[in-house]
Predict the structure.
Amino acid sequence: MKKQTSLVLAAILSATSLTLSAKPASVDDYRAMLGDSPGLLWVEDGEALWKQKSGPKNVSLEACDLGKGPGVIAGAYAELPRYFKDTDNVMDLEARLKHCMVSLQGKDPKQIDKQAFSSPKKYIDSDMEKMVAYVAAASNSMPFNVTLNHAKEKAAYEAGEALFWRRSSVMDFSCATCHAQDDKRIRLQSLYNAYNKENAGKTIGTWPTYRVSQDTVRTMQHRMWDCHWQMRLPDIDYASDAATALILFMTKQANDGEIQVPSIKR
Ligand code: HEC
């Protein structure tokens, strides 16, 4: 009995030694132990969803044009956000997928917004997170190549940068308060710098990502929602022009950065 207790104690001690040792286990350690990203499961599900007939019109998304022609997925994410002639608007991947789900499949846009983010703790799933993982992964190893050739792309980039610097809400923060300098951090998290090309490339190139703390793949639109919440701002609308403008600004800053998704983050 006594021996058992000491064995249990030893087990507890060795299990907690990770947190007691001088260097705490990091997401990097976790990543090394895990090998492949669990996000690959989202990619697989996303492929099935893309090909599956669905919605009131009972068609798949295979005719969806993500910018490189109907059904072309390879390399599409590397050039998004971009201007689309049919909607006369700049769209990121999520705004475009939403558009295809509405126009091709006849789905309700409000319902798409509602189900865009999963809630693993409430067992609420998101098809969007899976399809984003699938489409984005089809640009793996490619560099971001976002252009500002169209006047509306240029305008969206400028709006995005203005939003990035606009201070507001109870804390009077802007995105730039946290993301415009090297070596800034909050507690143990280092904060990315949108104006450091290498850092921006590595950061934006690793979204969508499997978030260990949330046990799901999160998308860049979700990150926009998350940082707005952190700033105590009202929720930013899903796939809105404002969110897309911010994403275009950040992605352009990250141009030439290599896409490696879905990554693993905290
Ligand atoms: C109070 C500081 C703060 C402000 C203001 C802020 N963020 Fe963040 N941001 C964070 C933190 C903290 C993280 C998470 C870092 C982590 O978990 O490693 C983060 C993460 C991010 C990431 C992902 C970085 C990565 O390493 O993958 C992006 C992109 C981002 N923020 C963009 C924005 C944008 C755009 C705004 C303005 C709408 C904004 N942030 C405002 C603190 C802030």
User: Anything to note?
Assistant: The pocket of heme C is lined by residues 173, 175, 177-179, 186, 189, 191-192, 203, 223, 227-228, 230-231, 246, 250, 265-266 (CB under 6 Å). The radius of gyration is 20 Å.
